[in-house]
Amino acid sequence: MEMFPLLRYLNATRETLESQPARLHVVLGNEACDLDSAVSALVYAFLLYSLRKDSTEVVLPVLNIPKRDYPLKTEVVFWLEKHNILPEMLFFRDEVDLQHQRETGELQLTLVDHHQLAPSDSFLDASVVFILDHRKLERHPQSGGIVVEMVGSCCTLVTEQVLARNPALLDSVTASLLYGTIILDTVNLNEAAKRVTPKDVDMIGRLQPLLSSSINRSEIFQQLTNAKANVSGLTSDQLLRKDVKVTSAGDLKVGVASVPMMVKEYLQRPEVGETLSEHCSSEDYSVLVIMGISITGEVVHRDIAIYSPQDHLRNQLVVYLRDAQGEVLQLLPFDSDIVGCSAFLQRNIAASRKVVLPLIKEWLAKENF
């Protein structure tokens, strides 16, 4: 097997990390660790490594999940292994003690595919030196540079950075990693899904010539979609942990889980009511929001459920999401037999979690609990 530069970099970094380097620059993806977050962290870290002026500095891409949760990220596992990137070559959040590094050494932190650290990571705020993200800016960093642009995929911005700063890194492996991720995030450049922008199309056009002439864009999209939806081996609880973002205010903690199926289908799984109750208890969620999606060819469907054993919290959030921004989500209720659960078809298929999560944060900020 040919060892491409990105693979050599990951292997060498694993060896260097074991020596406990004093100077560490971590490129941290978001806590959902979807394909965009994972590939953005890997490729952007590789770019920074290639540009470093001090050979003693270690640049480390970190997937922002515990190692035990990696098998839950089925499309990430599929796409990375397709490019010969194995789990033992990766770095997970529970393998790198960022608090210790911050206290005892020199830590720099670049955030990709998010710009706001989780509340439990607030101690790292002062270490952030750069942010690269593709969602609406909710807060300005304390220091450092920032590139935020509302494109379909953070990998579009990573590609742009690589092309501008070291295009030689774009061999067949790095180009393919980025290409597939952008295709998945933009629903195969499907304008109906309202996630693709001209810059996404432009970057795909720049990456395409670097790949095999036999590459089939629709085939790659279908492979990744199938891998993301392949949850046959996952329990109902694991599905809720597969792709989740968490937000909080005071004593209230809200989980927003994306599942690779329609919520209506998820709620029909055996003993799912018990699973939701136990999951909220174990994760200390006051409310759990579940977002579902189904993609068949060019047709996209979405639905959403709000679960909470506390009726007043669930009802307040339901009303807020239903009416927010002139009924932007276009919610249509459907029956759910699960106690404590309100479920809706979401007719605005363009409103992904990047739209829903800020609405939940607004609700937490405005309500007087």
Description:
With 369 residues, this protein is α/β, with parallel strands linked by helices. Helices cover 40% and strands 19% of the residues. The chain is built from 13 helices and eleven strands. The strands form two sheets. Strands 6-7-8-9-11-10 form a six-stranded mixed β-sheet, with helices on both faces. A five-stranded parallel β-sheet has the order 2-1-3-4-5, sandwiched between helices. The model has no long low-confidence stretch (mean pLDDT 92).
The average pLDDT score comes to 92
From the spread of the alpha carbons, the general shape counts as globular
The ordered string of helix (H) and strand (E) elements is HEHEHHEEEHHHHHEEHHEEHEEH
Q: Beta-sheet strand percentage?
A: 15-25%
End-to-end gap: 58 Å
Helix content: 40-55%
- Biggest pleated sheet: 6 strands, mixed
User: What strand order characterises the main sheet?
Assistant: 6-7-8-9-11-10
Helical segment tally? Answer: 13
Poorly predicted regions are: none
Number of strands: 11
Structural class based on helices, strands and sheet pairing? alpha/beta
Rounded Rg: 20 Å
